[in-house]
Amino acid sequence: MNESRRAATPLSIILMATGPFALPTMRWLVDSPHDFRLWITRPPRPSGRRQQLPHSPLRELARQRAVPTWEPEDINAAESLERLREARADLFIVCDYGRILAADVLAAARLGGINLHGSLLPKYRGAAPVQWALFHGESETGVSVIHMSPKLDAGPILAQIPTKIEADEDAVTLERRLAQMGVAAVETAIDRLAAWDGRSPLGTPQDDTLATPAPRLRKEHGRIDFSRTARQIVDQVRAMRPWPGTFTWWERKPNRQVTLRIEQAQVVPEPASEAASPQRAESPPGTVLVAQDDRLWVQTGRGILSIVRLCPAGKRSMAAAEFLRGYRIEPGTRLGPPDEKS
Description:
It is a single chain. The chain is of the alpha/beta class. The protein folds into 2 domains: about 5-210, Rossmann fold (3-Layer(aba) Sandwich); about 220-340, Formyl transferase, C-terminal domain (Methionyl-tRNA Fmet Formyltransferase, Chain A, domain 2), CATH 3.10.25.10. It contains 11 helices and 13 strands. The strands form 2 sheets. A 7-stranded mixed sheet has the order 3-2-1-4-5-6-7. Strands 8, 9, 10, 11, 12 and 13 form a 6-stranded antiparallel sheet that branches. The termini are far apart.
């Protein structure tokens, strides 16, 4: 730790976090010189057939390290506001919490709140910044820490760290790496706030004209549109892992649709794609061009998509070679919803 960070004034801090993106920051906060007074999280909701509570690595850490915990139904309710005022915290750290804080709530801490966000703001404001950066084929992303305002992800930037997106990264691996990067950004932001005089301009204002949305994911975001390019579909597969996944349909028998979850895909290079040239003539997007050995190649709006790994509905995940040994799918078959094949 450098001299400026050792000299920073310890602050009393409340963490508001629910999702795993906040885990590295919470780990750091537990062992930091700051007074970590309280972890606030959303109440867990049972899910699945057995209505089990989801596993929370933050909850496990809080239990192990005896972190005081509070699970309000509504952080913006009057009774929540009263408790926050009574806590007399210097600062709120918000990360992957899942609620927008009202102005009165932000004002309950002496220095307001900071938010750790998984993008280079103002790009990708919203609930799924990592996924939408991948979906749109970005080559760079990063983390930002802002001084919060009631407007979504719109406060001035206190710290920002860029990083290159690796070609083999998906939403799971990229989000995990960004979460680790976020610790340094949070430290920098806290140091700046601790030294702030409370009057001078703080941070770098965002240019709202450059803002792009990153809305919460829905099931339909995983549906493949084969009229898009092969590169775009590969990026969609990377972005939508693990949920909602990327999927299409195969009419295995007349009026019998099988959902295929595409787990890994590649763009077929142009020289290699010559092997499919006889089948490519006037083939509409979604047409299977090659289904042999380990090659399951599909025509797209531009380029050929190689499906490397997939999971038929009700079955386990398998490589393309194993799928083709167990399922007979002929070149010329068209993948996609039934209403798009006529």
